[in-house]
Specification:
The protein has 65 residues and is mainly α. The chain contains five helices and no strands.
């Protein structure tokens, strides 16, 4: 499972719409969709931002417990 898939799982668990998360990350909703569907690699600079948003570690974002 990649970062995009994990991001989507976390977003859905929290009941957020793609637009809400995209706004929080400062990106466009269609770009978030590409990340979540693993059609585009999530940029490295967004990884800590996503982890902070969901209040998890970067390891957890990578699927490590």
């Amino acid at each position: 499972m990649g970062i995009g898939t994990e991001t989507k799982k976390l977003r859905m668990q929290r009941g957020l719409k793609q637009q809400e998360l995209a706004d929080a990350l400062g990106i466009l909703r269609p770009v978030l969709s590409l990340y979540e569907n693993e059609k585009l690699q999530t940029p490295h600079h967004l990884i800590p931002i996503i982890a902070d948003f969901f209040d998890i570690t970067i390891d957890e974002l990578f699927g490590r417990e």
